[in-house]
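User: Design a sequence. Structure:
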């Protein structure tokens, strides 16, 4: 599991730092799904990741998950704002045209009123003249003719005057009808202008709201970008620290391997001498190891490439997913040769089982919350030797922030896949 200490973070970092850069322009939902799928696949590998590195990964994942939606919101609000501003310009132009039409309608009404006033004045003069002549003025003019030609001429003049009076009255009636129509048109135009003004006021408020939304959305994007950059920088810092921790664990494992190799040589030599002398040598018996806990495997033994460091390295044990405080049992009988706090493995208990299948075998139990047996104690298969730990901030967790048991099998001083012995 330690070989994948920063694996989850690496996948997320790769999404940001360019390993999967083309996804930046792809469907935001597909990009989020890709990140979530990588996290789900590597969730078990977070147990032995440092708290700072895991927090940086969480921050990076949160920023990566929210950024596509935030950018989509910026684009959506910007589009709405541009459309609203374009509508505002069109409405403004239409409002100017409508105002000009109102002015023209008012001018037509003023002209019609002036025409009606003039007609009233003319009709008044005609009425006064007719009153003064007793209503017989035009007839007297005709009858006072001195000759037939003069009579015909005066008759034509009187007829023209009477027709002129009728034309004035007809024009007055038409003007009054036009005035009513023009006033109705003016009212309609004014209502249209008032409606346009209300629309424009509502549109101005909408534009103001969209501008605020656009600013907020852009600030959110900028904040997420800053958070992502900060998380990437934190990951880079923690990556170097993670590499140093991994190196210290490799050194600890190598030191323990040398001790166990020496003990295995001594055990095999003692077994050979005992056989030569016809005596039985020490063995745990049975040839097989028992499971130390009853739980599923969260991370198996094996080689893998750490995408953060690029190092192809060994995960030197099998991780069992158990909660903190779970009893841990001895896989076989033997002698406790180490029960101490180590740098990387935390509280680590190591049991030397002697010779099994002709090889010196030892088992290691790491990230324990506590021990029940100490150095030099003899244990039997199935005895409770300690309790699992590994929770964040827990004493004895070592380089582990999640509860689990890291179980290792050493054969002649070197680690092997525990599943071949369980």
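Assistant: Done.
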């Amino acid at each position: 599991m330690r070989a994948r200490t920063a694996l989850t973070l690496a996948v997320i970092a790769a999404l940001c730092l360019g390993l999967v850069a083309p996804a930046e322009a792809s469907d935001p939902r597909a990009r989020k799904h890709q990140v979530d799928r990588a996290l789900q696949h590597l969730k078990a590998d977070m147990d032995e990741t440092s708290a700072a590195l895991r927090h940086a990964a969480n921050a990076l994942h949160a920023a990566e998950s929210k950024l596509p939606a935030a950018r989509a919101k910026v684009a959506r609000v910007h589009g709405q704002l541009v459309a609203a501003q374009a509508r505002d310009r069109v409405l403004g132009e239409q409002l100017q045209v409508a105002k000009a039409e109102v002015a023209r309608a008012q001018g037509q009404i003023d002209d019609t009123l002036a025409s009606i006033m003039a007609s009233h004045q003319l009709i008044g003069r005609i009425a006064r003249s007719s009153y003064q002549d007793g209503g017989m003025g035009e007839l007297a003019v005709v009858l006072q003719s001195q000759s037939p030609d003069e009579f015909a001429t005066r008759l034509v003049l009187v007829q023209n005057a009477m027709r002129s009076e009728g034309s004035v009255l007809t024009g007055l009636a038409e003007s009054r009808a036009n005035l009513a129509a023009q006033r109705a048109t003016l009212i309609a135009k004014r209502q249209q202008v008032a409606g346009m003004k209300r629309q424009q006021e509502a549109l101005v408020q909408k534009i103001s709201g969209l501008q605020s939304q656009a600013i907020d959305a852009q600030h959110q994007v900028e904040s997420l970008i800053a958070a992502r950059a900060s998380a990437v920088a934190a990951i880079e810092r923690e990556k170097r620290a993670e590499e140093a921790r991994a190196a210290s664990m490799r050194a600890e494992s190598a030191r323990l391997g040398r001790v166990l190799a020496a003990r295995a040589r001594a055990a095999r030599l003692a077994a050979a001498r005992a056989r030569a002398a016809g005596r039985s040598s020490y063995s745990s018996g049975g040839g097989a190891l028992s499971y130390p806990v009853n739980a599923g495997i969260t991370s198996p033994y094996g080689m893998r490439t750490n995408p953060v460091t690029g190092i192809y390295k060994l995960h030197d044990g099998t991780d069992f997913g158990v909660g903190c405080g779970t009893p841990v049992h001895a896989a076989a009988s033997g002698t406790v040769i180490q029960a101490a706090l180590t740098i990387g493995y935390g509280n680590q208990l190591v049991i030397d089982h002697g010779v099994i299948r002709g090889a010196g075998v030892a088992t290691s139990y790491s990230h324990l919350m506590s021990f029940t047996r100490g150095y030099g104690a003899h244990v039997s298969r199935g005895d409770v030797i300690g309790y699992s730990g590994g929770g964040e901030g827990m004493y004895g967790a070592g380089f582990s922030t999640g509860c689990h048991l890291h179980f290792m099998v050493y054969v002649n001083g070197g680690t092997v896949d525990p599943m071949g012995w369980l």
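The first strand starts at residue 297 and ends at 299. DSSP finds five helices and 13 strands in the chain.
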